[in-house]
Amino acid sequence: MSTELGEFLRTRRESVRPEDVGLPAGRGRRTPGLRREEVASLAGLSVDYYTRLEQARRPSPSRQVLLALARALQLTEAERSHLLALGGYGACQGLGMSREVPQSILQLVDRLDHVPALVISAARDVLVWNSLAAALFGDLTRLAPEDRNLVWLTFVGCGEDRFAHADRPGYARDSAAELRAASGRYPQDQQLQRLVRRLLERSPEFAEAWARHEVAEHQSRTKRIIHREVGELVLDQELLVLPEQEQRLILLTAAPGSASYERLQLLRVLGTQQLSAVS
Questions:
Q1: Which of 29, 143, 217, 234 has the fewest other C-beta atoms within 10 Å?
Q2: Compositionally biased, Basic and acidic residues: which spans (predicted)?
Q3: What tens digit of pLDDT does each residue of 236-262 get?
Q4: Domain closes at, from 41, 58, 87
Q5: Parent domain of 37
Q6: How would DSSP label each residue in 9-78?
Q7: Residues 175, 124: contact at Cβ < 8 Å?
Q8: Is this model's pTM higher than 0.85 or not?
């Protein structure tokens, strides 16, 4: 059994407070969160069996056991899916993720010239982007293909400080958690595993976030971006899921009439001028 499953169980166990599952907090606890025997009791397992799971000294457990553990540890939907994937249920065993964007989506992104638009893989590789996205985030064509990844740009950067996230610590933590979820679904994807190794080598901040074993799914949200040329932008991030490829089409919009909307239109003009100057 992979140590990933055991490490995930351990970190989730340590994050649950006893009072959250109806147990007295008590005094004299030497470890954070729940004890192993408490998790085993809540899940209807023997202490020895659960201990062996955490220590990766058992074969992969059944789906029923994993679901019982998910309930005992009060896992979120994303965490539950990740636990099942680590156990071999729902993971794309032997398969790499799709990085080929459908032709219809390529044409759609090309026509979307009024909002920043980009398509990302399950590992947050930036596969396609339009001119306004380039004006917002920088010219990704200048980067090596393996560096065109939102997690890499967050933790390592590209040497071009065109923008910054106003809530960078939260965004960085979410980025690592989303990559962790993808790694569970695609354990055999060599490009993803190489990305994780490179991030661990280059970024102590990523290594710290990765060690927490947090998982999350990419969601629609409001983003505050500080842009070098136009200032602060408050943008609504909308996601359109391409289920067959497990890709995301990201659209960044601003409320009409808002300061961010006007700045986005200014950025569109500036981007056009820069492209004209280059050509």
A1: 29
A2: 7-20
A3: 999 999 988 889 999 999 999 999 999
A4: 87
A5: 1-87
A6: HHHHHHHS-GGGGT----S---SSS--HHHHHHHHT--HHHHHHHHTT-SPPPPHHHHHHHHHHTT--HH
A7: yes
A8: yes
